[in-house]
Design brief:
The chain has no helices and eleven strands. By secondary structure, the chain is mostly beta strands.
Length: 126
């Protein structure tokens, strides 16, 4: 099992930027696909982005493509989500998630990921 702790959320105006971090501990991090998801009030948790073991491959939800960038630093056991050109509809609690060791698929479904952080709130004001 891996422990995940997100940070970097906050309140930002429309058009602003935030960088979320997710620090991992407890087991090998570098052989897990990492994902970011978000959940707005009254809505289901939805996929945002995923990244492969070494960061060579990434995948994004259409709603955030071009605006968000996922990247990772395996030496620091940390995955990041750089969010630019934020919109009010990006307001949500953001969660990072880790797949099983050895998994390679950049999955968009929550059931693929075994370990989750506690979430960090992102609020974009209009």
């Amino acid at each position: 099992q891996v422990q995940l702790v997100e940070s970097g959320g906050g309140l930002v105006q429309t058009g602003g930027s935030l960088r979320l971090s997710c620090a991992a501990s407890g087991r090998t991090f570098s052989m897990s696909v990492m994902g970011w998801f978000r959940q707005a009030p009254g809505k289901e948790r939805e996929f945002v982005a995923a990244i492969s073991w070494r960061g060579a491959s990434t995948y994004y939800a259409d709603s955030v493509k071009v605006r968000f960038i996922i990247f990772r630093d395996n030496a620091k056991n940390t995955v990041y989500l750089q969010m630019n050109s934020l919109k009010p509809e990006d307001t949500a609690v953001y969660y990072c998630a880790a797949s099983d060791i050895g998994s390679r698929r950049l999955a968009t479904t929550t059931t693929y990921y075994n370990d989750w952080g506690q979430g960090t709130q992102v609020t974009v004001s209009s």
